Amino acid sequence: MPFSDAVFPPPDWSGTLRAEHLWPASPKLPICLDDAAVVCRQGTIVSAGSWPRICSATLPEPIVNVPGHVCPALINAHSHLELSHLRGLVARGQGFEVWVSSLVELNLMNQDSGTLDQAVAEMRDSGVVHVADTCSRQPEPVAEALTRAGLSFHLLMERIGFKDRCPDVETPLPTTAAHAIPSGHALYSTAPTILSAAKAETRARNQPFSIHLAEHPGETELLLSGSGPLRQLLAKRILPSGYAHPGHSPVDHAQRLGLLDAKTLAVHCVHLNDRDIALLVDSGATVCLCPRSNAYIGVGQARWTDLLQTEIPLCMGTDSLASNDDLRLWSEAVFLQSHLENPLGLERLVPMLTAVPARVLGLENLGQVVSGKNAALTRVPDDVLETCQSS
User: Where are the chain's structural domains?
Assistant: First the structure.
């Protein structure tokens, strides 16, 4: 192999890549280019296209042949790296309430640099170049680990709680975390006024806004009826004594609060009705699927086929090692493919891991193999290709 790293070429590299098969994830180029050229200058793509067309000009050296299928380096649209020390310690497959009860019994602050570095390396070594990481406790160590690994990132600082139970819920963002952006934890765990304020702040700055949405049945039950096991669980720690349920589904409630628009990253969206899907379409929000996390916790399976038939932009995330076995983003794609009656081709799958998350996160230099973007590519692994060959 010409490059040993999962993401290539090296930063600031100049030269020409000759790819056997290129999936550029861009409307400016064909869906797939067989025998493609990518010309790079100091880490930036100068031109990309078919080899016969590009090679008619003088090409910068070295010229490196890249076998197999190549695409833009990946973007993990949802993770919780601060929970990386909890791998294998949290209840599996018993539903959200059991999972979160198991989680809060553990030491959530016991992270160390070695564990974080290992978790970040899992992402990097699977072709990830950027991470949208959700933090609520210790963003600085996460930022340091990502920086050491050479990954770019967002730190999505989630607001959790209601003022009378969690007085520090509106604590200012840490000044040491230069990448910090306010986000919402969930509709059942954060006061509506606080969610709306966080969304207003990100909207004013043209930043993405992330929120866990419609992840598990208890969320829907609590918001619709005000009852259920989630209500009992949250009453101990978060919900105010006078909590009044909105009487709407999670998506409907989020829409009424003004949380959904083209800069919103709605994470999970497992439990949706037809009206919810229509609201998501109309809002322009991007849905981030985390299928292996949903299976690990035992919250059900999203309406993937229905979502894929809409205009809703879809991307993917690994979630955390408290609800997943590893942080390999390609494995989310393999899991999704294995559960679809009609698996996707690479023309649908690659943008979900590249161009779509780049757009909602505002990453102008990533997500596509076209002129002006960063020269950051990765190979499509064999297990992913095998799922696509059955499509």
Answer: 15-73+374-389, 74-327
Query: CATH fold of 74-327, please?
Result: TIM Barrel (3.20.20)
Burial of 136 from C-beta contacts in 10 A (0-12 / 13-18 / 19+): middle
Task: Return the biggest CA–CA distance within the chain.
Answer: 72
Cβ pair 196, 170 in contact under 8 A? no
Which SS3 state, helix, strand or coil, does residue 368 take? coil
pLDDT tens by residue, 53-99: 998 778 999 999 999 999 999 999 999 999 999 999 999 999 999 99
Question: What is the full DSSP assignment across 50-84?
Answer: EHHHHTTSPPPSPEEEEEEEEEEPEEEEEE-GGGG
Nearest to 248 by CA among 288, 202, 213, 282: 213
* pLDDT value, residue 177: 52
CATH class of the domain comprising 15-73+374-389: mainly beta
Burial class (CB in 10 A: 0-12, 13-18, 19+), 130: buried
DSSP string, 221-234: HHHHHS-SHHHHHH
Domains 15-73+374-389 and 74-327 share a fold: no
- Give residue-wise pLDDT tens across range 153-177: 999 999 999 865 454 555 555 544 5
